[in-house]
C-alpha cells in the first residue's frame, strides 16, 4: 500500500519548510516526499507534479490537512458541526447538500463538481473555506493534494495502524546499503536531499554494538580481537554479543519499564515484595530467544495454557507487578478496580501501543474506542481472585493472592526455573494470575468510578483494531491469541518499533505508546511494515530482528553531525547519521562497573541496595514496614548491574531518576533523555564513580605503569578507543597538576583515595595514585564516556 | 507589573530566537536546562503555548506551599463548631451524613458519636476569625491570611488525596504543581532549581511522602522537584569529595571542558556544548546551594522569630526559614511537607505536638516575608489533603478521641501573592460536616494558584500520548472572591 512513497522529484529544499508552514510541520514529518514537491522552489510552484501513477493517500496526505483545517467544524464532534456537514467519514463527505440536494460535498473523481473543492479555491470571502475569520488557510500544495485525491476517487481509509501491515516491494537496488532496511532509509534520505554519513570507525562500532546488545562497554580483548572490522568480523561480533547472557539483561530493562517492575508495593507504607523471579524469567526468555508471540502469550495467559508449567505461570506476574495498597481503611472494591484498570492500561499501551485509558471515563475523543470497548477489554482481566486489600502493612506478605510458590524441588528440575537465582532454601512467593471459577460480571463504570456501574459487558476487543474471532475463548487465553494473530495490525508493529527505539533512540513511530490517530505518523511507514511482517514471517524471532538492524548500513553510519544535516533534520528523523545518545541510567552504572573491573556478572536474584545518599528512605517513610530504613548491601552485591538495583516505588533509586529512568509507577514505553547539572553532580561526586576511579588508579600504580602508560590504558578501558596525542597531552598535564597538589598537601592523599568499600592495598596510597584517580574521574565525566558514539 | 510581563515576553522571544539561531549556527548552543527541548524539536503548538506565557500580569512570582501531610483536623484548628461539644456522644444524623462513603477504618463502627474540640477557640483580627488555642502564632498573623473553610476533595485515602492535590489526578504519573510552574514560567535563578522540596516530620501518626508527588510526570525531567535534605549535602551529590577544594574542582572542570570541546569539534553535536554548560551550572550550584542553605548569618531576631528549632536541620522550622531563603533567591516553587497529622486516635495529644511544630514557624514565615517586602509577590499556602470526621473513631473519652478521614469539608489558609488578607472564605454546616457556602474544589484551588501566577489553567497544557493534559484536568474555576 505504500508504493506511493517512491521518490518523485528531487528539487526541493525541505529545510525551510517548517518555517513556511509551521502548523503543518508535524504532518510533513510523517509524509512522503510527494507533498513537498509543489510546496517550495519557484520552478515547481503551482505545478501538480504528481505523475499519473502517484496515489494520494488519505491517511498520510489528506487526513492531516482535513483534520487540521476542517474537522473543527466539520468533524466527529456532533455538537460543533456546522451546516450538518462532516468530512471525516465517507458517508458525510459524499452526501448531498441539505439545502441543495443536487449538489454534493465531494463527488469522487470529479473535483470540479465537488462543493468542498469549489469552496476551498473560492476567492469570495463569503464562500471561501476555511472562512477567513477562522484564521485558517489552505496552502496551494494542500489544495493540490485534495484535488488530486478527489480526482483519484476520494477514497477514505482506515487509520493506518489499524490496517494489517503488508510488505511493500523493496525499492530497487540503490547505490548505498546492505540490506532491506537501508533501501528504505536511503530512499527517504534521497527524498529529503540528505546523504548518509560514512561508516563509523571500528572502535565506535564496537562500543556501539557492545552497548546496544549487552548494555556493557567492550572489553579490551573484544576491542583487540575485532579491530579493523570487515563485514565478516562484524557479523561474528554481533552474534557473539547476542549470545552473551548480558543481552537478556540489557533488553530486560525495557521490559521492566513496560511491566512496571518494582521491589515494593507502592502507596503509603510501601512494603517489600518478591516479584524478582519474574524479572529473572524475562532475562531468561530473552536470552533463549523465546519467540515474541509466546513471550506475550505466557505473560497474558500462561496459567491457562494446557498443563501449565510453573514457568508459564510465573510469566503471568506481568499482570501483577502494579502497585498494591496496604493503607488501612481503604475501600476494597475501589482498589480491586484500580488494579484491573492498571492491567488494562498496561496491556493496551505496552503491547498494543494504543492509549485506551482515555476511554476509561468517556468515549475516546480521537480514536475509535468507546467506553464500552474499554470495559470489554477490562473484562478479560476482571476475573482474577485477587483482592483490593489483604490487610495493612503489619500483616504484609511479599506476594498477594493468587500466589505461585517456588521451592527447592522446582529449582532441581532440569530446564524449568533452574535459572532463578535463589540464594537459600526458603520458598519464594510471587504474585501471579489465576481465574475465578464463576465469572465475575463486568460493568461499564461511569466516569471510571468503581461504585458507578452501568451496563454489563462481556470480554471483547475493539473491532476497529481487529475482530475477535468466535473461535477464541472469551478469556485471557483468547485475548493472547487475538493479540498474536498475524492479522493483528498492532502487535508486531509496536514491538518492532520499540526495538527500533531501543537502538536508534526514537521509534519509526515516535510516540511508541500511541499508534492512534493523535500519535505520530511513522517516518518510514514501509520500513516499519516490512520489518513487522518479516518479524512475524520469521517466527517472531527477536534476535533475528535486532541482528537485521545491526547489520544494516543505516546502523553503521558515523554519528558525526554536519551542519547541513542538522539544519535539515535536527531530530535525525531520516537517519542520515547514527544517533549520538547518552546512555540509560542502568548503562551508565554498568559502564563504570565494567570498565573499572568491579562488575559482578551474577544474573538475577533479589534486588540489591547499592550506595545511596543517607536519609532518603527515612525522610519519606511512614515509619512502618521493613523498608522504613535503607540498609545498604555490602561486598560483591554492590557491584551488580543497574538492572538489579532495588526499586522502592515511593523513593526510587535517586541516581536512576536523575538519569531519566522510569519511576516504575506505571507502564512506560519511552524514557526521556535530558542533560542536567544534577547528572554532572552524580558523575563528579558519587562515591561509586570515585571508587571505580580509585580501583583503576591503584591498579596502575601496582602494575608499575608510567603515567603515560597508565593514562593510555585507562583511557582505552573507559572511552573504548585509543586517545589522541592532544588528549594525552591534556590529561598528562592534569596528572602533573594533581600530582603537585597531592605532593604539597599529603594530608589529602588518603582521604581522596579512601572511598568505597572495595579493599585498598596500603601500598596503593600515594600521591601518584591520588593524582591518577582524579584523572580517571575526569575521564568518567567526559561527555563521550557515557555516550553511544 | 506590566513591565514584568513585558520583560517576560521578551525573554520568551529571546529564548525562541536563540533556539533558532543555535540550530543555524550549530556552535551556539544554550544549556539544555534552559531550553530543554531545543534539539528534540518542540512542536510549534508547544512553542505557541510557551510564548503566550504569562497569560496575564501575575500577582505572585513564587509559591511556598506548607503541606500538612496526613490531614490536620479542621475542627481543632480553623472550623469552630460548638454544636459538636454540645451534642458530644450523640450519633451523627443520617440527614447530615447523606450517604458519605466511609473508610474501612470506621465503616464497621456501630455508631458515629459526635465529638467536639478538646481545645478552645477565640476570635481574632479584623475578620473575627475563629482560631483554636493550638495556633496562637497563627492567630497573630490572622490579618495577613485568608482562611478557606470550604475546601473539598474526591479522595478519601492519603495516597490518592495527596496525589490529587499535587498533580490534579488521584492516580497516574502526572506532573506536580511545581513542575507545571517550572515548565510554564522557568526559573528566576539559573544557579538553583526552579522547584525545591523540603521534608520534615512531627511525632504524630505519620503517613509517608513519595517522590511521585514532586515528579515531572511526562514533562521534561528538568522540571522535577529537587529534594533538599538535612544531611551534609543539601542537594544529592552536591558536595565535592573530601580533600577537594573549589579551585581543584575548577581545574578538573576546565580539563573536562577542553576534552569535551575536542569531541565537539570532531562530532559537531550541539548536545556536547549543552553538556559543557551543565557542568558549569553544576559548579555554580555547588556554591549557590550551600550559600542559600547556610543560616549561620541570619540575625538573632530572625532565629527568635522562627524559634530555636530553626537551627536544627530537618525540622519544620528550619525548613520554613530555608523556604524563605530559597524563595528570596528566586526559586519558583518551594514545597514543604510536614508529616504526622493523621490523628485516627489520641488526637488531643498528638495534634498539640504537631501544632507546636508548625505554628510559630508558619507565622514567622509570613512575618518575615512581609518585613522584607516579599509577601506581596509570594504566595504561601498552608493545609492538608483532606479533613477529618466530626465523629469519633475508636474509643471516646473526655480527653481522648480520634477522627477518621473526611473529604467533604476542610480548611486551608493562603497568604500574600494577590490573595485577600484578613478574610475567611466559605462555611460549613453547624456539624462541620458539609459545606453550606462557597465550596472550593481541589481543582478550583489549583486554578486559583495558577491564576495568581499569571497562568490561565486552561491554557497551560502539554500534549502527551495524543491528549493535551493540564493540572486541573478538565475542571476548575478560579475562586475570584479571594483575589485582591
UniProtKB/TrEMBL annotation, chain B:
Gene3D superfamilies registered for this protein in UniProt: Alkaline Phosphatase, subunit A (3.40.720.10)
Pfam families: DUF1501
Full protein name: DUF1501 domain-containing protein
Amino acid at each position: 500500500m505504500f508504493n506511493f512513497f517512491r521518490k518523485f522529484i528531487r528539487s526541493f529544499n525541505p529545510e525551510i519548510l517548517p518555517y513556511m508552514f509551521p502548523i503543518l510541520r508535524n504532518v510533513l514529518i510523517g509524509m512522503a516526499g510527494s507533498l513537498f514537491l509543489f510546496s517550495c522552489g519557484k520552478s515547481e510552484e503551482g505545478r501538480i507534479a504528481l505523475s499519473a501513477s502517484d496515489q494520494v493517500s488519505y491517511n498520510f496526505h489528506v487526513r492531516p490537512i482535513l483534520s487540521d483545517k476542517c474537522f473543527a467544524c466539520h468533524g466527529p464532534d456532533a455538537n460543533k458541526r456546522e451546516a450538518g456537514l462532516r468530512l471525516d467519514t465517507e458517508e458525510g463527505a459524499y452526501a448531498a447538500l441539505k439545502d441543495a440536494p443536487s449538489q454534493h460535498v465531494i463527488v469522487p473523481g470529479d473535483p470540479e463538481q465537488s462543493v468542498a473543492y469549489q469552496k476551498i479555491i473560492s476567492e469570495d470571502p463569503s464562500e471561501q473555506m476555511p472562512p477567513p475569520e477562522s484564521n485558517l488557510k489552505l496552502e496551494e500544495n494542500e489544495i493540490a493534494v485534495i484535488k488530486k485525491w478527489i480526482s483519484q476517487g476520494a477514497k477514505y481509509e482506515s487509520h493506518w495502524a489499524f490496517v494489517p501491515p503488508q510488505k511493500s516491494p523493496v525499492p530497487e537496488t540503490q547505490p548505498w546499503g546492505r540490506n532491506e532496511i537501508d533501501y528504505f532509509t536511503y530512499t527517504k534520505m534521497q527524498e529529503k536531499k540528505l546523504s548518509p554519513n560514512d561508516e563509523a570507525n571500528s572502535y565506535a562500532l564496537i562500543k556501539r554494538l557492545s552497548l546496544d546488545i549487552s548494555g556493557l562497554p567492550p572489553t579490551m580483548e573484544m576491542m583487540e580481537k575485532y579491530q579493523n572490522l570487515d563485514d565478516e568480523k562484524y557479523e561474528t561480533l554481533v552474534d557473539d554479543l547476542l549470545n552473551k547472557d548480558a543481552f537478556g539483561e540489557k533488553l530486560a530493562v525495557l521490559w521492566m519499564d513496560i511491566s512496571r517492575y518494582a521491589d515494593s508495593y507502592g502507596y503509603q507504607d510501601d512494603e517489600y515484595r518478591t516479584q524478582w523471579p519474574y524479572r529473572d524469567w524475562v532475562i531468561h526468555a530473552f536470552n533463549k530467544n523465546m519467540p515474541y508471540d509466546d513471550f506475550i502469550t505466557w505473560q497474558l495467559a500462561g496459567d491457562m495454557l494446557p498443563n501449565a508449567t510453573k514457568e508459564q505461570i510465573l510469566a503471568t506476574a506481568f499482570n501483577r507487578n502494579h502497585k498494591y495498597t496496604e493503607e488501612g481503611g481503604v475501600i476494597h472494591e475501589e482498589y480491586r478496580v484500580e488494579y484491573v484498570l492498571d492491567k488494562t492500561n498496561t496491556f493496551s499501551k505496552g503491547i498494543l501501543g494504543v492509549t485506551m485509558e482515555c476511554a476509561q471515563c468517556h468515549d475516546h475523543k480521537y480514536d475509535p474506542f468507546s467506553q464500552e470497548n474499554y470495559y470489554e477489554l477490562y473484562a478479560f482481566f476482571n476475573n482474577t481472585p485477587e483482592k483490593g486489600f489483604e490487610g495493612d502493612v503489619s500483616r504484609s506478605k511479599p506476594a498477594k493472592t493468587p500466589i505461585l510458590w517456588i521451592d527447592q524441588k522446582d529449582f532441581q528440575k532440569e530446564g524449568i526455573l533452574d535459572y532463578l537465582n535463589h540464594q537459600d532454601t526458603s520458598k519464594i512467593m510471587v504474585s501471579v494470575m489465576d481465574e475465578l471459577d464463576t465469572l465475575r460480571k463486568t460493568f461499564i463504570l461511569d466516569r471510571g468510578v468503581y461504585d458507578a456501574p452501568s451496563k454489563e459487558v462481556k470480554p471483547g476487543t475493539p473491532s476497529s483494531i481487529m475482530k475477535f474471532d468466535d473461535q477464541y475463548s472469551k478469556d485471557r487465553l483468547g485475548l493472547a491469541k487475538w493479540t498474536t494473530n498475524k492479522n493483528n495490525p498492532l502487535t508486531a508493529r509496536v514491538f518492532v518499533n520499540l526495538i527500533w527505539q531501543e537502538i536508534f533512540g526514537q521509534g519509526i513511530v515516535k510516540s511508541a505508546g500511541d499508534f492512534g490517530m493523535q500519535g505520530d505518523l511513522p517516518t518510514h511507514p514501509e520500513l516499519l511494515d516490512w520489518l513487522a511482517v518479516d518479524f512475524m514471517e520469521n517466527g517472531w524471532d527477536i534476535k533475528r530482528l535486532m541482528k537485521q538492524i545491526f547489520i544494516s548500513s543505516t546502523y553503521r553510519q558515523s554519528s558525526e553531525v554536519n551542519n547541513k544535516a542538522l539544519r535539515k533534520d535536527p531530530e535525525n528523523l531520516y537517519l542520515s547519521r547514527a544517533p549520538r545518545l547518552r546512555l540509560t541510567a542502568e548503562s551508565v552504572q554498568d559502564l563504570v562497573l565494567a570498565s573499572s573491573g568491579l562488575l559482578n556478572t551474577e544474573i538475577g536474584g533479589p534486588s540489591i541496595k547499592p550506595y545511596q545518599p543517607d536519609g532518603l528512605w527515612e525522610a519519606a517513610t511512614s515509619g512502618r514496614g521493613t523498608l522504613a530504613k535503607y540498609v545498604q548491601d555490602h561486598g560483591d552485591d554492590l557491584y551488580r548491574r543497574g538492572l538489579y538495583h532495588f526499586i522502592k516505588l515511593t523513593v526510587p533509586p535517586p541516581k536512576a531518576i536523575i538519569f531519566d529512568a522510569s519511576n516504575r509507577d506505571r507502564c512506560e514505553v519511552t524514557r526521556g533523555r535530558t542533560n542536567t547539572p544534577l547528572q554532572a553532580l552524580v558523575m563528579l561526586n558519587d562515591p561509586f564513580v570515585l571508587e571505580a576511579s580509585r580501583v583503576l588508579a591503584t591498579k596502575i600504580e601496582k602494575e608499575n605503569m608510567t603515567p603515560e602508560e597508565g593514562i593510555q590504558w585507562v583511557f582505552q578501558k573507559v572511552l573504548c578507543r585509543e586517545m589522541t596525542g592532544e588528549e594525552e597531552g591534556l590529561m598528562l598535564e592534569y596528572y602533573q597538576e594533581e600530582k603537585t597538589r597531592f605532593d604539597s598537601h599529603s594530608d589529602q592523599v588518603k582521604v581522596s583515595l579512601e572511598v568505597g568499600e572495595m579493599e585498598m592495598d596500603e601500598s596503593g596510597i600515594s600521591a601518584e595514585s591520588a593524582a591518577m584517580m582524579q584523572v580517571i574521574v575526569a575521564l568518567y565525566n567526559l561527555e563521550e564516556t557515557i555516550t553511544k558514539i | 507589573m506590566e513591565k514584568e510581563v513585558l520583560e517576560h515576553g521578551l525573554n520568551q522571544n529571546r529564548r525562541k530566537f536563540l533556539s533558532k539561531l543555535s540550530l543555524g549556527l550549530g556552535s551556539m548552543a544554550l544549556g539544555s536546562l534552559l531550553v530543554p527541548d531545543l534539539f528534540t524539536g518542540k512542536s510549534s503548538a508547544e512553542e505557541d503555548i510557551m510564548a503566550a506565557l504569562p497569560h496575564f500580569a501575575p500577582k505572585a512570582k513564587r509559591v511556598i506551599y506548607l503541606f500538612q501531610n496526613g490531614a490536620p483536623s479542621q475542627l481543632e484548628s480553623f472550623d469552630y463548631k460548638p454544636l459538636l461539644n454540645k451534642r458530644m456522644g450523640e450519633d451523627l444524623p443520617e440527614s447530615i451524613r447523606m450517604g458519605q462513603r466511609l473508610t474501612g477504618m470506621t465503616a464497621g463502627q456501630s455508631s458515629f458519636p459526635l465529638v467536639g474540640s478538646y481545645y478552645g477557640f477565640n476570635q481574632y483580627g479584623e475578620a473575627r476569625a475563629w482560631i483554636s488555642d493550638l495556633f496562637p502564632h497563627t492567630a497573630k498573623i490572622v490579618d495577613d491570611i485568608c482562611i478557606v473553610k470550604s475546601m473539598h476533595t474526591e479522595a478519601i485515602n492519603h495516597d490518592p488525596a495527596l496525589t490529587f492535590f499535587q498533580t490534579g489526578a488521584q492516580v497516574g504519573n502526572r506532573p506536580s504543581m511545581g513542575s507545571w510552574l517550572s515548565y510554564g514560567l522557568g526559573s528566576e535563578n539559573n544557579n538553583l532549581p526552579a522547584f525545591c522540596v523540603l521534608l520534615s516530620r512531627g511525632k504524630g501518626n505519620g503517613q509517608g511522602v513519595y517522590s511521585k508527588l514532586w515528579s515531572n510526570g511526562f514533562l521534561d525531567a528538568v522540571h522535577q522537584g529537587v529534594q533538599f535534605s538535612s544531611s551534609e549535602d543539601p542537594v544529592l551529590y552536591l558536595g565535592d569529595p573530601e580533600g577537594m577544594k573549589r579551585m581543584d574542582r575548577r581545574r578538573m572542570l576546565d580539563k573536562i571542558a577542553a576534552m569535551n570541546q575536542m569531541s565537539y569539534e570532531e562530532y559537531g553535536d550541539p548536545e556536547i556544548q549543552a553538556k559543557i554548560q551543565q557542568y558549569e551550572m553544576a559548579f555554580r550550584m555547588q556554591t549557590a546551594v550551600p550559600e542559600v542553605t547556610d543560616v549561620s548569618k541570619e540575625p538573632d531576631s530572625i532565629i527568635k522569630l522562627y524559634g530555636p528549632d530553626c537551627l536544627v536541620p530537618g525540622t519544620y522550622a528550619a525548613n520554613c526559614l530555608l523556604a524563605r531563603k530559597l524563595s528570596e533567591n528566586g526559586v519558583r516553587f518551594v514545597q514543604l511537607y510536614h508529616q504526622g497529622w493523621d490523628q485516627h486516635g489520641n488526637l488531643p495529644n498528638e495534634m498539640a505536638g504537631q501544632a507546636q511544630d508548625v505554628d510559630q514557624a508558619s507565622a514567622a514565615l509570613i512575618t518575615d516575608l512581609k518585613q522584607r517586602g516579599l509577601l506581596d509577590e509570594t504566595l504561601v499556602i498552608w493545609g492538608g489533603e483532606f479533613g477529618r470526621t466530626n465523629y469519633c473513631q475508636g474509643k471516646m473519652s473526655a480527653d481522648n478521641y480520634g477522627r477518621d478521614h473526611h473529604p467533604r469539608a476542610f480548611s486551608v489558609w493562603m497568604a500574600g501573592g494577590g490573595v485577600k488578607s484578613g478574610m475567611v472564605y466559605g462555611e460549613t454546616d453547624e456539624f462541620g460536616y458539609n459545606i453550606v457556602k462557597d465550596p472550593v474544589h481541589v481543582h478550583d484551588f489549583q486554578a486559583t494558584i495558577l491564576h495568581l501566577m499569571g497562568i490561565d489553567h486552561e491554557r497551560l497544557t502539554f500534549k502527551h500520548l495524543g491528549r493535551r493534559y493540564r493540572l486541573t484536568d478538565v475542571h476548575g474555576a478560579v475562586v475570584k472572591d479571594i483575589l485582591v
